[in-house]
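Data availability (excerpt). The following record was deposited with the supplementary files.
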Amino acid sequence: MQLPEPEEPKSDKPQPSRSVDLRALGISKAQAAELRWRLQCFAEDWDDPAMDIYDDYDNALKALKGDGE
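Predicted structure:
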């Protein structure tokens, strides 16, 4: 299956500074391009500013439960 080249994100929203070394996970450039292509249908929702609440979800949940360390 021939996949189109991945497009750069169209959002003006800064991307999170967290990055994942895909090569260290055994994911090739071609596999990463396919993954991006498969997930592009979620990009609009994922990049929505309302989703920022989930950026630090685990820590926020701990704080609500009083489990802060």
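Summary of structural features: The chain has a mean pLDDT of 79.
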